[in-house]
Amino acid sequence: MKKLLLLTLPLAFIGYSPLYAQITPKRIEARRTNKPVVIDGRLNEAAWQDASLLDDYTEFRPVVGRKEELENRTETFLMYTDAGIYFGGTCYEKDIKNISKELVGRDGFGANDYIGIIFDTYNDKLNGFEYFVTPLGEQWDAKMTPNTNDDNGGEDFSWNAVWESAVIIHDKGWSFEIFLPYAAIRFSKDKLQDWGLNITRRRRKTEQQNTWSAIDPNVNGFLTQEGLWTGIADIKPPIRLQLSPYFSVYANHFPTNQADQKNWTNQVSGGLDLKLGLSQAFTLDATLIPDFGQVQSDNRVLNLTPFEVKFNENRSFFTEGTELFNKGNLFYSRRIGGAPINFGEAYSGLKPYEQVLTNPTESKLINASKVSGRMKGGLGIGILNAVTRPQYAIIENTETGETRKVETDPTTNYNILVLDQTLKHNSSVSFINTSVLRGNNNYNANVSSGMFSFFDKKNTYNWTGSVAISNLTYKVPDKKHSTGYSHSFGFAKTSGRFNFSLSQQLTDTKFTSNDLGYFTNNNFINHALYLGYRYTEPKKWYNRLFYNFNATLSSLFSPIGNIESKYQQSNFALNINAQNKKLHWFGVFAQFTPKQNDFYEPRISGKVFKRGNSVMAGAWIESNYAKKYSVNAEVAERVFLNFYDLSGTDLFFAQTYRFNSKFSIRHSVNYQLRPTGLGFATILTDGTPLFALRNVNSVDHILFLKYNFTNKMGLTFRARHYASVVKPKSFFTLTDNGTLMPKSGITENLNRNVNFFNIDMVYTWQFAPGSFLNVVWKEASVMDSDIANNNYLDNLQNTLQTEQNNNFSLKVIYFLDYLQIKKLKKRA
Known about the structure:
52% strand; 45 strands; 4 helices
């Protein structure tokens, strides 16, 4: 490790790059046409003679700065009309067998070659719109925002626009045509405009990626190196009114052993999603009576940690175009429509002879809306509002049969306001406010944060920081309002071969953003150091090589109870990653974690659990995904030093096989083996935390099958089985000084055997632009027992034999655009 670090230090302030300070961004003059174009992939209309030619592409990986080969060159054309932008061209291939193609569905990468155009319509080098096509005519689109230390920036592929494209494959390669209506992009209403522009093409079998305006991967950011499309004149942002009404039918089968309860319930519903252009820059997105019943099932796990599991967001309204709302890490969209805040009160307030009949596990969303966009001067504004209806648990008296309701969640209003001002040199300042307003006597929550990110003129050094204040206000007199504080500051070098960052984050004992964000704990001062070096020029055995060193230190902001030490934990890690000549990625990593003071594992405030030193090492590999068969594997082993002989192994293996361009299958398995693990088990009757030395084995299997009939129609099948078995070997009580004392006489069965099984089968057909027919089958079953069975096949069989929930649904979404309707009326 020391030898490796010494190699980086002499170059710390050189930041050498072979193209650094040599690249001059390209410029191209905009050309207009009034001639018609039929989008069929053939550039045979006279209008293309009016277009600008963009060729002479430059490679930025694997060989930086190399010009395209003549036989595999790229020729593209760009022009505009009163209605939108036309982009077309030919991706030449010396041998068309080298075209990598796969049907994977919209916004899917797969093993596809692709070409795409990126517009920075406000030319601020911070906000881009991307549009891609593949050789089989599938579309991608995304919003691009800056992301430090990422060659491609931050891309939000959940953002979708409606546009036209067509592709044909021929004996010289493949040709494409794209039409982008102005409703599919955001821009100012200036009479004369210059836009940032770049075009990129990727050939997956060689992993060559070329751009029209050259890119240096050692310079921070993709948009910061874009070219320029100049002289765009007299274009007007159109009226943007798009409606997506939906109609859905659900049939739900709920298993029950009670004869008077129905196994089947049916539901018919409808609603509406709306996009309205409030101005040339701002868009209102609203959903009325939303329906999220077809989203993918959560990957549920047995959680043995003291912190909440964070799930992915699969609801499109909360993933599409939310880059502004995600600033500051204060927004966790699963809070909206999540678990009721007073879910447990249905059980804690039970009277004699009462039982809980029903207790909803999530709140129901009434409606949600968001306004977002960016003004000409660079001010981005985002406003999000959502309302959930109250939820009630039904309590039954088993003697009289009478029922009563207990409110577990009041009517709740969620709000987010974001102001983000872009500045010169890829810099910005931001303000974020989140608030949660609840009915009845429940508390309200508010968090405000100011942020900044400043770069120098050469886009080499970056200063970041944030300050946040949280407020909890209570409506009952016996609780006092609570105000908390948090800040973070950092300094980094982001361009050149050598990069580093140094940061500090502080949170006091009262700060919390958990009501609308994901927040685990407060009361800490964290410091982090990152040192990284990258080789982007191919050498004898590698195309790219990266290595980095990370160090962290965490302490309490304020002492806890009578514990004098503020130290929590520290960590030192080394990573080395590379891509070889056969386009396989691989890496090795190592980590040392000194002794820790864990203030959260005891589950009781004022207690500490002292962990021992540990070391961890591992390796990973990703084979060339362009091959028919590819694998992705990782192994890591952690061993504790002179601390109860604890050890743990993590194994991950995934394999994908593509039978042809339509059909592929992927299987992944993730093992977490803890033959000797140690952690919190329960709280004894005297209030003492009980710990267990235990065997914990978890396995997560996912099988995914995909068959795409066309580039507009496909079928997917996803089955997941998760099993986690916990078997204690011996028990300990936690002493006041943080050590463990053996405890005998524990008769309570603390074994756990938890299994989750899910199936998500989805047929989707895009029968018109922006319009979809979806048919979904979902199955879920859960087995939770105190019999610790480590036989995986037995667990799977027993889980499949348990009663299962089945859900069948059909949903039709029809896209209506005001401009299209207006054209049809004129023709009529």
